[in-house]
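haha ok so turns out i had the wrong file open the whole time. this is the CORRECT one, sorry everyone. sequence first:
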Amino acid sequence: MHKKIIFLIGFVFVLLMACNSPFVPKQKGYSQMHFPEKKYQVLKEPGYPYVFEFPIYAQINKKLNYFGDTKEADNWMNINFPEQNATLYISYRAIQPGQLDTLIKDANIFVNNHNSMANSMQDSVFTTANGISGVFFHIGGDVATNYQFYLTDSTRHFFRAALYFDATPNEDSLAPANAFILKDLTHLVNTFKWQ
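then structure:
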C-alpha cells in the first residue's frame, strides 16, 4: 500500500510539473502565400523546335539531373519556380513514323501512375488559337503532380510537361501555389508555337 501512495504522489508531481508552459492555440489554416505580379518573357532558344512565353520569375534549366548525373538532352528543359519550390519538367520528342500512339500511351501512363493517391482526374482535349493540339490533365488529391499536359502536331513534334513541387503532397496546403502556377501553364500553352 505504501508503494502505491508513493507512486501516486510521484505521478501527480510529474503531471503538475509538465503543465507549467503557457497555452498556445493551434493555428487554423496555413500561412498566407505572397505571389509576384504576372509578367512573361519569350523563350526562343536557337535550335529548339518550339517557342512559348514563361514567367519572368521562373528560371530555365537545360542541365537535367538523371539519377545524380547532370546531362543536357536535346530540346528538354526544366522551368523552376523558386519562390513556389516547384519545377515544370519538359520533354520533347521528334515523332518517328508510327510512334505517336506510343508517345500518347506513355504520357497517359505517367498520368495514371498517380491513380492510387488521386481522388479525381480530368483530361481536357484542346486546340489553341495558334492551332496547337493537346491534352491537359488535372489530377486531384494528395498527388505528386496535379498538372500534366502534352502538345503535338500529330506528325513531327511531341512536347510533354509535368509540374512537381518539392514538398510533401498536400492538396490543401499546395492549392494557392497550384492555382497561381496553373495560370502560368495556361499562358504557356496558349502562347506555344512550333518552329
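The first strand starts at residue 40 and ends at 43.
again sry for the mixup
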